[in-house]
Specification:
Elements: H1 2-21, E1 23-26, E2 32-35, E3 42-44, H2 47-55, E4 62-65, H3 73-76, H4 89-94, E5 99-103, H5 109-114, E6 119-122, H6 127-141, H7 144-164, E7 173-179, E8 183-184, H8 190-197, E9 201-202, H9 216-222, E10 226-230, H10 247-250, E11 254-257, H11 259-266, H12 272-285
Length: 295
């Protein structure tokens, strides 16, 4: 009898241990997906998530990435399977992934799920979203503690950059153009939230959504003192109707970021503190009134 009870206790312990080891993740659609153990073959169709997987020490679990995942070098060398709008389903299936990580707006989600693949969809627009997605990716990888530590270090890095910014670089009206359209980063985006921590005043309100498409006249009326945009958007701003009268354009207070800098800036991932430094360098190079800047 004692032996039987011992066996039963062992079975109960094993069952509990197996349940505890099970990996469960709820994505940004609210869908719960589970695995008997952390996935070992991952396809990522989001560059920011690719970077997060690698920052958590699991680059070796990636078997494929989207065409824009170019950091770190280990991820860049992986098979590429298309982009947000043109993901190659056949190639993804051929990679036999345990899970595919993508944007909530990706068109390919339904097709992948119909083929029996497990999908996790994310929508990291704000800093709070970034913290949440890092937690979700950490849970997926079985590295929750590392994900929490990564967020703390990233957040502290932004604080450190903000603390080092000279007072004369603060308080300026900023327009940050994410891509042509123009699409802008508003106050409610992670870019806008970092700018706010740097003491900048974003001319695009958060009520318009994180990354709204603007009427160009909106920017003219907002009259920013500093404009930030990527090298991919380098159509002369003075040729845009009415923009030659904008203070930033008139005074040449424009920061044009390289493609590599642009990748850092627009990805809500583990390099956000680096993005903060890039924006801080721009602000410091365009000092406010009384320091040789706009009056």
């Amino acid at each position: 009898m004692r032996r039987l009870l011992s066996c039963l206790a062992l079975l109960i312990w094993l069952a509990g241990h197996a349940a505890a080891a099970e990996t469960q993740v709820v994505d940004d659609r609210g869908q719960r997906t589970q695995w008997a153990q952390p996935p070992q073959r991952i396809v990522s169709l989001l560059p920011s998530v690719t970077e997060s997987v690698c920052a958590l020490g699991a680059c070796d679990r990636l078997v494929g990435v989207d065409d824009y995942s170019n950091w770190p070098a280990q991820a860049k060398a992986l098979p590429h399977v298309g982009g947000l709008e043109d993901a190659n389903v056949e190639r993804i299936v051929a990679l036999r992934p345990d899970v595919v990580l993508l944007s909530r707006s990706a068109r390919v989600t339904g097709r992948l799920e119909a083929l029996g693949l497990r999908v996790l969809a994310f929508e990291p627009d704000s800093l709070a979203d970034l913290q949440r997605v890092l937690g979700q990716v950490g849970a997926l990888l079985g590295r929750e503690a590392q994900a929490q530590a990564l967020w703390r270090d990233t957040n502290a890095g932004v604080d450190q950059v903000a603390a080092s910014l000279p007072a004369q670089a603060r308080g300026q009206r900023i327009y940050f153009e994410v891509s042509s359209g123009p699409y802008a980063a508003s106050e409610s985006s992670f870019i806008g939230q970092v700018l706010a921590r740097l003491g900048a005043a974003n001319v695009v309100p958060g009520s318009m959504g994180p990354f709204p498409k603007l009427n160009p006249e909106f920017v003219v009326k907002a009259n920013p003192q500093v404009i930030m945009l990527g090298d991919r958007n380098t159509v002369p701003l003075s040729t845009r109707p009415g923009w030659q009268g904008i203070e930033a354009v008139r005074r040449g207070r424009i920061c044009v970021f390289t493609n590599a800098q642009g990748d850092v800036l627009v990805r809500p991932g583990p390099r956000v503190a680096e993005a903060a430094q890039i924006m801080a360098d721009c602000l410091a190079s365009k000092p406010a009134a009384g320091e040789g800047g706009a009056r």
